[in-house]
């Protein structure tokens, strides 16, 4: 009952925030700007860099490359290279960007602002007006990390992966399904997410080099030593062009990872022939029922075993009550991996500094309760298979080591399917259904 009351309060608060969002834009506000990633910049500064000038230089550069929320651009280094022209179509970018509107023929525009910015923010930073009310927080696209996809651990998703996420929504979160929307709208939104990610990754790369490679904060730094010094365009055009070429290299590096994604799709191995398909048909034979029961039993043993070691996080019974004190990578980046334990009372002021710059208040990432039946990223057997084999980027869940023969160093594809069947059996038990 307490959980239900909390959910009702959360939905009321979310409704108020969204109502405010609808009212405020009519009050003479200025055109929106992309918010700079000051959380990441501050992380660099904590280690000794002074990036005020670097932030200004970066803002000039990425505005020239990517434009503004109302007038987006695609970097020329992408549009002029045939290898990248399929990544984002300008027509889709323009449809997804800008203010909410409709053409005379009924074509919707401003799709991202209409459907996504309330939670994900205009900049795709996960800091929309409703974001602080949501659990989990909306995704910050700027890190370039995506959880649920068909590609291997560490790779970018495909456009189809992004469209699939839009179409099915994210069960157990505030992200709804957009399956009723036209396919062209979903493709435009998916490509806009890629655009926001590219912009964010280029910004981060520039801060990283500003802190680690260039002399920002050094009184002897010259304009030639900066990321981009606009005054050099007239006084030293050769040096200016070198700076611009280096910036375009950041763009190409980020875009190349998206182009490579289709080649990194992980094939799903079929389950062993003797095991029937999940779920069992109503007229399954006794032998088929016995084979599935044996697979589930093996999966249970593997779930709690030392190789798969699922139980260490998900708990011995799969109720998500194992490791509950960890964080996702979006939080870890500026906390634990930055030498900052957010639970340390002596670090409260440092945490406040990050929160003031746009970081979300740290929350522990909770392992999935398999009994709840809400599987983000899909609840089909092949979806669970991918989560086990590929891991979940941005979370503590790693990819497993696939082996050809049973060993203490990894799992066979048959082992994985046994775990899949065990996990799905728990979800049916949680919903009160027969196995």
Automatic annotation (TrEMBL):
Pfam short name (any one): Cytochrome_CBB3
Domain Cytochrome c, residue spans: 103-197, 294-427
GO terms for MF: electron transfer activity; heme binding; metal ion binding
Keyword vocabulary terms for this entry: Heme, Iron, Metal-binding
Classification via InterPro entries: Cyt_c-like_dom (IPR009056), Cyt_c-like_dom_sf (IPR036909)
Domain of life of the source: Bacteria
Gene3D superfamilies hit by this protein: Cytochrome c-like domain
PROSITE patterns found in the cross-reference section: CYTC (PS51007)
Protein name: Cytochrome c
Organism of origin: Rosistilla carotiformis
